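Hi support team,

I've been running sequence recovery on a batch of backbones for a student project. Most finish fine, but this one hangs at about 90% for roughly twenty minutes before it completes. I'm not sure whether the input is malformed or the queue is just slow. I've pasted the structure tokens below so you can try to reproduce it. Let me know if you need the job ID as well.

Thanks,
M.K.
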């Protein structure tokens, strides 16, 4: 309003004006009204790029769930709800494309391997000793290994979508790793070796392996993005992402998760060897030097990390590591259950019902947890802590064959993706995909699904399926 404008007056409202409803503020929903242009534009944007919702699924994993029981039969998190929204969104888009005559949206190989997993778990649920109990297991496995991976695969259209989800993995790892390091330095983590120094991030003492999984995913995603930036000639971005990937070694170390250590070392080795052998050797030298400085020089958990590594094979003697001996006893238990039910297993979610009848006498009743804001509790051992043995005991040879076909197809396809990138003169994103998949397959030797980060397994499988069953565009600066 300028000085030449006439003064504004507010006239008295007439009876008709007073009877009219006041206009709704911008962005406010009016019952019965059609969505405003802003909401319609946002919905169209989400439909065009559903990978944003997949990235949100990753970030929502970091939302604290308190000290809830992660071993409960039904444990739904914010990330689970978002993943179901992603499935619904991609299903709607796929149905619309089919109705418009777009044909099949999934490659035939993807349809074959994911259908095999669905058939295997359905057969095990039908032949279960308690089909009603196995129904929740059937739903969970279908969500984790079929529906959400397919939705992630359908949400990826180009390398921008892939970078978005990898960036979300890095962001989640930075958040959880930062919280974990703070817990280690201030002694506010989970209980470990007489103290409360075990880094668990926002997941609490009842889910001590969750933070290490998130940090491992982020480390590998940052490494892949750094390799891509290096191939494209973006030196500053490559250096920054490489240093960020290396910095995640510290929160991973103070998580004291032996399975994550082994899986991360194997995954980084696979990714670098398939990308550049000389770079792999330089990376090994740099990692050893950083370990000497951080652990040997600064003393950041050196004695504890060394003792934790040496405990992997400590199952005998006067002071055996009970967590290790219990895990090996659970493996034996799973094998005995399978021998009694070799074809379709005992059914999803049925391992706890058959555990005591097949377990060695020395198996503990549960593992002790405390710290990170929670009191002492004993978590029951409801699975064999080995995904392959869990599938074998609950789904038999039928289920294990289906899962083996899925994992083998993804692994071979991701390796081909890396070779395609190398031939086209680029590298990085394919290395990230095969690194994430290799981490998951190795980690399954020491862990299985369950807990807050289970939905991230689905995201990793969906990313690997994108590299295995599609032909990503060549890397470009």
């Amino acid at each position: 309003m300028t000085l030449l404008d006439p003064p504004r007056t507010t006239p008295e409202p007439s009876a008709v004006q007073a009877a009219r409803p006041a206009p709704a503020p911008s962005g406010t929903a009016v019952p019965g009204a059609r969505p405003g242009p802003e909401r319609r534009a946002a919905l169209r944007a989400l439909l065009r790029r559903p990978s944003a919702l997949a990235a949100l699924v990753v970030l929502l994993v970091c939302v604290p769930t308190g000290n809830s029981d992660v071993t409960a039969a039904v444990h739904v998190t914010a990330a689970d709800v978002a993943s179901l929204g992603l499935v619904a969104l991609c299903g709607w888009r796929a149905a619309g494309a089919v109705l418009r005559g777009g044909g099949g949206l999934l490659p035939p190989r993807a349809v074959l391997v994911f259908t095999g997993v669905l058939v295997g778990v359905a057969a095990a649920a039908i032949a279960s000793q308690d089909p009603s109990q196995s129904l929740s297991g059937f739903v969970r496995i279908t969500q984790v290994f079929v529906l959400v991976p397919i939705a992630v695969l359908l949400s990826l259209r180009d390398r921008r979508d892939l970078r978005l989800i990898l960036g979300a993995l890095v962001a989640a790892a930075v958040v959880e790793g930062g919280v974990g390091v703070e817990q280690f330095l201030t002694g506010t983590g989970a209980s470990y070796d007489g103290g409360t120094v075990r880094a668990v991030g926002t997941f609490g003492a009842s889910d001590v392996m969750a933070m290490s999984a998130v940090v491992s995913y982020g480390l590998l995603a940052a490494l892949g993005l750094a390799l891509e930036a290096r191939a494209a000639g973006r030196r500053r971005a490559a250096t920054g992402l490489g240093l960020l990937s290396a910095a995640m070694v510290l929160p991973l170390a103070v998580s004291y998760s032996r399975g994550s250590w082994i899986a991360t070392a194997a995954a980084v080795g696979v990714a670098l060897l398939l990308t550049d052998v000389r770079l792999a050797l330089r990376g090994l030298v740099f990692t050893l030097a950083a370990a000497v400085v951080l652990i040997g020089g600064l003393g950041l958990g050196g004695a504890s990390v060394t003792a934790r590594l040496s405990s992997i094979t400590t199952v005998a003697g006067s002071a055996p590591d009970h967590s290790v001996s219990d895990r090996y006893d659970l493996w034996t238990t799973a094998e005995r259950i399978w021998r009694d039910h070799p074809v379709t297993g005992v059914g999803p979610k049925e391992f706890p019902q058959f555990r005591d009848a097949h377990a060695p006498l020395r198996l503990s009743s549960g593992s002790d947890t405390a710290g990170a804001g929670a009191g002492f509790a004993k978590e029951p051992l409801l699975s064999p802590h080995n995904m392959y043995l869990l599938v074998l005991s609950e789904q038999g040879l039928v289920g294990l064959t289906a899962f083996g076909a899925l994992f083998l197809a993804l692994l071979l396809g991701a390796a081909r993706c890396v070779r395609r990138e190398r031939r086209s003169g680029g590298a990085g994103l394919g290395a990230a995909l095969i690194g994430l998949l290799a981490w998951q397959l190795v980690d399954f030797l020491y862990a299985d699904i369950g807990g807050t980060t289970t939905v991230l397994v689905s995201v990793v499988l969906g990313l690997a399926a994108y590299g295995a069953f599609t032909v990503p565009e060549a890397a470009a600066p």
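--
Follow-up from support: It reproduced on our side and the slowdown came from queue contention, not your input. The CA atoms of residues 57 and 79 lie 5 Å apart. No action needed from you.
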